[in-house]
Every structure is written in structure tokens, then in C-alpha cells.
Amino acid sequence: MSRVVRVAAAQMGPIARAEGRAEVVDRLIAQLHKAHSFGADLVIYPEMALTTFFPRWVFDDPNEADAFCEAAMPNPAIQPLFDEAARLQVGFSLGYAELTQEEGRKRRFNASILVDGTGAIVGKYRKVHIPGLAHADPDGCASNFEKRYFENGNLGFPVFRAFGGVLGMCICNDRRWPEAWRVMGLQGAELVMCGYNTGATRMVMEGNRRVMEPAHLATEHNLLVMRAAAYQNCCWVVGVAKAGAEEGSNFLGDTCIIAPTGDVVAKAVGLGDEVIVADCDLSAGDYNRRSIFNFEAHRQLQHYGLITAQRGVKVPV
Ligand code: ING
Q: What is the pLDDT of residues 231-279, one digit of tens each?
């Protein structure tokens, strides 16, 4: 029985450091309206969709990062997006930098939420794989200093029953680690949302020389990891970029919606604010989940040697 959710991926173009939350929220609402005009049930925004990608900079005082974080979600600046989405009965997922007090101390997480068509937050995730460095790079190659500002996520990789199916979230660098997808696959994820801020080029060391990695690799690796994840875990994958030339960084676009077969069914073509849409039948992965990727029948953990069997993974009833 088909369970179609019309999904919109709302790619965002650059966000300038000087752009205030109100201006950004106006852009998010404009994309919400476009998605709604396409009949979308769910709109997916990128990683850290409310501000410029500040971990491109090394602040002497890491606490300067607080200004780019949300101390509450929602909060007065973001509330108009929640209100308009609820009025239109459209759900959304949103990536943002979270500032919180937990266990008696201030903490920052690179987070995302899932909001249903009534405006209720039904899921939250905190980015587990925090890439980059916690300090300036003596090689001068790094362009990502998230470790200076964010802790590793402490919520695991949960899945959420919403929109008639089982949905999960991961964020940016998480998509490069097969385990992240498999933990959600083991819980029966049928659609996983992944926002990202990813450089279109990358500087690497060859011996003692800084060289540019071949430019095609950023695009190819982006699609490679998400298409493989969709196929190997029988789920839809929606990858959503913050794209374009932002404060001196050139970010990848390639926002896309990928079917459980690994096929790319919709893809953005530009580097600005752009909405793409696809009808995602959450049952589309069922046959492969029962056949080629029937984990119980074919995933021979007991023969993997060094890998100990995964115990205690919560599987939805
Ligand atoms: N960005 C990058 C990403 O994983 C990166 C960091 C780029 C790591 C390329 C390795 C190679 O897409 C974020 N925000 O994680």
C-alpha cells in the first residue's frame, strides 16, 4: 500500500554574516510558500539554515559562536516560520546551531528538528560526527572548525514516527559515515533528511605542498555517499545544501531527493534559494527490505569476525 509524502527540499543560497534572523526567516517562509504551491507536505531545510556557516572562522574566544546559536527553539525570531507552516499545515525540518544549559553547563550542538503539520516538534537530532579542527590549521588547509564550537551529538541516531512513516535525520559530515545510516536503517527508517554546508573544493597536503583536491570529487562524494546509503538501507534520502559563495567559501549545491533504489529523482540546478519536490512513497523500500537487504536473513554479523554483533538497537514495534 503506497504511503506518498510530497517532499520539498529547500536549498538555501548564501547567508551573509550580517544577515539577521528576520531576513533569513523571510527567505525560509518564501521557500515554504513555494513548496506549498507545489503541494508539499514536508519541507526540508539545510544544516545551520538560520545563519552564515560561522565554523569557517577561528574565533579567538569560542564564545563568540553563541551569537550564531539559538538559545531556544522556537524563539521569537523563528516563530513566524512555525506559525506560517502550521497555518499551511506543512511540516518541516530545520538545521540550526543550538545553545543550551545541560548538566549544569553551557553546551553547543549542531542540531536539527522535525516539525509536523500542526507545528509540533516531533523529532530532534544533534550532529554526532563533528568534523574539522578545534584550532587554527598549521597546514593552512582546513576550512572547517566545528570542533572548536560544537560538542558531539548525545542523542544517537533516533528515528521518528511521523508523516505516516519512520523518518530520521543526519547532518552533513554524518553522511560520510555508513554507520550513521545503518543505525537508522536498523530501526526501519524509510526517509532520512540530511542538510549540509560543504565546500565545493578542498585543499589537501601532498607531501609538504598544499594542493587543491580534483574539483569533481566534492560533487561525486556528496552523491556517492547519499545514493549508497539510500540503496543499502532501503530508504529515501533528501540531501539539502546551503549553497553558493558565502563569506569567502564556495559551497556545493546538488540538493537532491534520492529513492530507495539509489536513483536521484530530483536535483537542484543552481546555487541559490531553490525548491525541488518529489512524491516519496514511503513503502518504496519495502520489497528490498524483505529481500536483498533483509537484515535478519542476510546480514551475517556472526561471520563478520572482528565486528561484534550490534546489540540493543531499538526497533520500532
Ligand atoms: N562539512 C563538510 C562535510 O562533511 C568536510 C566537512 C568536507 C569533511 C569535505 C570532509 C570532506 O560535508 C560539514 N559541515 O560537515
A: 999 999 999 999 999 999 999 999 999 999 999 999 999 999 999 999 9
Residue 280 annotated in active site: no
Q: What domains appear along the chain, each with residue ranges and CATH number? A: 4-284 (3.60.110.10), 293-317 (no CATH)
pTM, entire model: 0.96
* CA-based nearest residue to 52, from 34, 71, 62, 65: 65
Coil, strand or helix at 17: coil
Active site residue 172: yes
| 106 a catalytic residue | no
Ligand 1 center from residue 134 Cα (angstroms): 14
Q: What is each CA distance from 104 to 69, 107, 201, in whole angstroms?
A: 18, 9, 40
- Residue 271, burial from CB neighbour count under 10 angstroms (0-12, 13-18, 19+): buried
**Where do we find the cell 544517537?**
156
Pocket of ligand 1 contains residue 172 by CB under 6 Å: yes
Cα–Cα dist 128/144, whole Å: 15
Residue with the smallest CA separation from ligand 1 atom 4 is 173
- Nearest CA to 5 out of 210, 171, 217, 165 is that of 165
Segment 7-49, tens digit of pLDDT: 999 999 999 999 999 999 999 999 999 999 999 999 999 999 9
> What are all long-range contacts of 295-300, with beta carbons under 8 Å and residues at least 24 apart?
295/185, 295/186
